[in-house]
Design goal:
The protein is an alpha+beta fold and 189 residues long. It contains five helices and four strands, in the order αββααββαα. It has a four-stranded antiparallel beta sheet. Helix 1 packs antiparallel against helix 2 and helix 1 packs across helix 3.
Length: 189
């Protein structure tokens, strides 16, 4: 790769990193704003019916992970989420060269940070905070805006992985071209 291509890739990577971080910030602010509004305007355990028989706003505190699993491991979840956030920031700032990955990972980062903020800074104490959940789909789960960003981003990531979309925007395995080139030059045995 010549210097011009390398320079353009660096500029593109910085532009996309900025976009990913802005998306993450929007997701984080949206999540925390909704949580604050719910905390200030509802009693713990209160439910407001939005779509009868399907969707409610139901204010709960979740000390565990999904479906309140692992309530005794809150600090472990906080540490895992911090590790995910650091890795996603690394990908956004060093590896991503295509908008679809930037959007998906920006949403993932924002969602993860939304729940990390709860775990670190909400009661009962630092590192063991309870996550504020409020979106209730009947006969399913109660979750929050951050969880929605995480799930939607992971669906997008799974789709891109199934389609073979690489972080740099290419399709297929990076080694496929090398394998094809080698097989054409090697004599048949």
């Amino acid at each position: 790769m010549d210097e011009t291509q390398s320079g353009n890739t660096g500029v593109k990577a910085k532009k996309y990193a900025g976009l990913g971080l802005v998306i993450a910030l929007i997701a984080l602010v949206l999540d925390q704003t909704v949580k604050i509004v719910v905390e200030q305007n509802m009693r713990l355990g209160q439910s407001i019916e939005v779509i009868p028989g399907f969707f409610n706003i139901h204010y709960i505190l979740n000390p565990g992970a999904a479906f309140s699993i692992g309530e005794d491991f809150t600090i472990v979840f906080a540490l895992l989420q911090i590790a995910v956030a650091v890795y996603v920031i690394y990908l956004l700032t060093r590896k991503i060269l295509v908008r679809s990955w930037v959007i998906a990972l920006g949403c993932l980062l924002g969602g993860v940070l939304g729940n990390v903020v709860d775990r670190l800074f909400r009661e009962p104490f630092f590192g063991f905070g309870h996550v504020v959940d409020m979106l209730s789909v009947n006969h399913f789960a109660i979750f929050n805006v951050a969880d929605s960003f995480i799930v939607c981003s992971m669906i997008a990531v799974a789709y891109m992985l199934i389609r073979g979309r690489n972080l740099d925007g290419t399709i297929g395995e990076a080694g496929d071209k090398d394998k094809t080139d080698n097989s054409e030059t090697e004599p048949n045995a």
